[in-house]
Amino acid sequence: MSKKITFSALALTSVLLGACSNTPEQGAETTAEQQMKTMQVQVLYKDRSMLPPGSQLTVTLSDVSKMDVAAEVIASETVTLDGAPPYDLALTYAADAVKERMRYSVSAKITHNGELRYITTQNNDPFGTTQTQSPIKVMMERVAKPNESLVNTYWKAMKIGAEQVVVQQREPQITLHQDGRVSGFLGCNQVMGQYVTAQHFGLRFKSLASTRKMCMEQMDQEQAFSKALADTFSYHINGDTLLLKNEQGDALASFKAVHLP
């Protein structure tokens, strides 16, 4: 009878010790889980532009309490996009990183090959009165492209008059060089000459000449391109688009800036 009691006591002690040894680890895991929170974010932009493949969205939760100091990043997540907005993303952050009386903001940006395409332009406080729903809605704006330089830029022809440019072998294009020369390709023949700019007329091409190769196709397009250059009186650049105009202000040709590797 004494041995049975002794054995039962030892067994009970072992169970209790085992329970005590597991409790701290389980408690630590539970505490760690409680310290992390997940915020559902939905990112949108207003225009209907389709993003090129490989575009990436980065969503960031930051502490923006301090003025004139870079925001402290609390959490950030980057995903590769597929399809049109809205884009839904889960942002996980440490709960103890968020303090009372501090100000926070969720920001987003879209990049493609390192080039910024969209970005948030306003504060989005996920813990304030402006955001009471889930997911947190974040609106982005398209980033305006800086105007390309007229000079030393490879301008690929897109439209001649109202007609889209058709490319057979090589794309029609022009380059205005720093020394006042213009060179390019009309679609069949090379073109070269000079250009001048002035306040009262904007842009004029002069002394234009071209090679005399005969092509079976696209001669009408080439002749129209050559005439557009001869009739140019002014130009307008908007981002990476160049528009040539005649003296009456009518569009003669449009071009797209191309950055060669």
Automatic annotation (TrEMBL):
Q: Which residues form the DUF306 domain?
A: 148-256
Query: InterPro entries recorded for this chain?
Result: DUF306_Meta_HslJ, HslJ-like_sf, Hsp_HslJ-like, Pilotin
Phylogenetic classification of the source organism: Bacteria, Pseudomonadati, Pseudomonadota, Gammaproteobacteria, Alteromonadales
Output the PROSITE patterns linked to this UniProt entry: PROKAR_LIPOPROTEIN
- This chain's source organism reads Pseudoalteromonas qingdaonensis
Q: What is this protein called?
A: META domain-containing protein
- Residues annotated as signal peptide: 1-27
* Superkingdom: Bacteria
Keyword set, alphabetical order: Signal
